[in-house]
Write a structure and sequence with these properties.
Elements: H1 2-23, E1 26-33, H2 51-63, E2 71-74, H3 78-91, E3 95-97, H4 103-113, E4 117-121, H5 126-134, E5 148-155, E6 158-165
Parallel strand pairs: 1-4, 2-3, 2-4
Antiparallel strand pairs: 1-5, 5-6
Helix pairs in contact: 2-3, 4-5
Length: about 170
């Protein structure tokens, strides 16, 4: 009887170590553009989110509710921080800032840290950063596109990009 338990214990430990090895070194970075911004706002350099932008940000937090995220990054703009905020609140995390003008250095940092992360950026940085993470060249995208989630799965400094589209629809008041 003891021999059966010992074999069962060895099998369980062996299975768990295989799972650990299987997941070891694999991490995922999600990149999104900030939600809709209020272009009628007086400070055109740093406008807040529109009502639809606030709704989209809450929708993103629901999307990320069951997604493992260890850290959240945003540029130093009201619209990006407020896009990340519902997810940060839901996950009990602080939002860390990054400089959108230093994307090469930031991509290196993300790869070095090997953490599941959410990165909120802009139409002229999100695709570029995704490209840097997978070793390909992607450019800016149109200013009216808000529904993309770039999922970059990395293992041993090699990345695979998946482009997801959200099904969000704004409900007007």
């Amino acid at each position: 009887m003891i021999k059966k338990y010992l074999i069962l214990l060895i099998l369980i430990i062996g299975f768990q170590s295989c799972q650990t090895v299987k997941n070891n070194g694999v991490f995922t970075i999600y990149l999104v553009r900030h939600s809709e911004k209020d272009v009628s706002f007086n400070n055109s350099a740093d406008p807040p989110l529109t009502h639809c932008g606030e709704q989209r940000s809450k929708s993103l937090s629901r999307f990320f509710s069951d997604v493992p995220i260890s850290t959240i990054y945003s540029t130093d703009y009201t619209r990006t921080k407020n896009t990340a905020l519902p997810t940060a609140i839901m996950k009990g995390m602080e939002i860390k800032e990054y400089n959108e003008e230093e994307l090469v250095d930031f991509s290196t940092l993300l790869i070095k840290r090997k953490q599941d992360a959410l990165v909120v950026g802009h139409s002229n940085t999100t695709g570029v950063l995704a490209g840097l993470l997978v070793g390909e060249e992607f450019g800016e995208f149109e200013l009216d596109i808000y529904d993309r989630i770039y999922q970059v799965v990395l293992r041993k400094k090699r990345g695979r990009l998946h482009l997801l589209h959200t099904a969000f629809s704004c409900k007007t008041e």
